């Protein structure tokens, strides 16, 4: 992590870290469920909702304070037929807050999604996905995001 003070131009750095654990298990014929958890200090953009540089703050003494962050997601994948499948999932990520941070600082995010995929031929898959996300800030305000995505994968 490297931060720069806008007024003095002083640059300072600190080591951030993060760890994650992910697991998947088969459930019946063609179905599976999975989960992933992550935790770290200064992990920033590696968790949903945080942007690059948001894993730490530069305090009034010009020292880096790493934000403690954690998150997790669970999802379920269902095979409807040999060439169609769907996945649904839900996740959450959060970071601690410091008094020095402004009201718009990221506090947590929650999201959910569902999709339907069709493997039309060996090397082409078509799909549609709906996703909902909510980002909450230090001052309690939030922003909702609704997305509808259509995709084609050729490989």
How do the SSEs run, as a string of H and E?
EEEEEEEEEEE
- Give the C-alpha Rg: 19 Å
Provide the structure class. Answer: mainly beta
Global shape: elongated
Unreliable runs: none
**What's the number of extended β-strand segments?**
11
Number of helices: 0
Name the average pLDDT. 89
Distance between the termini: 36 Å
Helix content: under 10%
The description of the largest β-sheet is:
7 strands, antiparallel
β-strand amount: over 45%
Widest beta sheet: strand line-up: 3-4-7-8-9-10-11
Overall description:
This protein is mainly beta and 155 residues long. It is 0% helix and 64% strand. The chain has strands at 2-4, 11-13, 17-26, 32-41, 56-58, 64-66, 68-79, 84-95, 106-121, 124-137, 142-154. A 7-stranded antiparallel β-sheet has the order 3-4-7-8-9-10-11, with no helix packed on it. Strands 1-2 form a two-stranded antiparallel ribbon. Strand 3 (17-26) and strand 4 form a beta hairpin. It is elongated, with a radius of gyration of 19 Å.
């Amino acid at each position: 992590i490297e931060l720069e003070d806008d007024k003095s131009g002083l640059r300072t750095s600190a080591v951030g870290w993060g760890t994650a654990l992910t697991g998947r298990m088969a459930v019946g014929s063609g179905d599976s469920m999975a989960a992933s958890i992550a935790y770290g200090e200064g992990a920033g953009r590696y968790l949903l909702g945080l942007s690059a540089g948001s894993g730490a703050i530069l305090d009034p003494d010009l020292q880096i304070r790493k934000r403690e962050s954690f998150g997790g997601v669970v999802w379920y994948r269902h095979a409807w037929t040999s060439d169609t499948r769907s996945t649904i999932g839900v996740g959450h990520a959060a970071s601690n807050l410091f008094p020095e941070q402004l009201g718009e600082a990221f506090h947590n995010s929650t999201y959910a999604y569902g999709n339907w995929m069709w493997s039309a031929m060996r090397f082409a898959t078509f799909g549609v996905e709906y996703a909902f996300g909510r980002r909450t800030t230090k001052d309690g305000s939030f922003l909702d995001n609704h997305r509808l995505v259509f995709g084609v994968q050729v490989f």
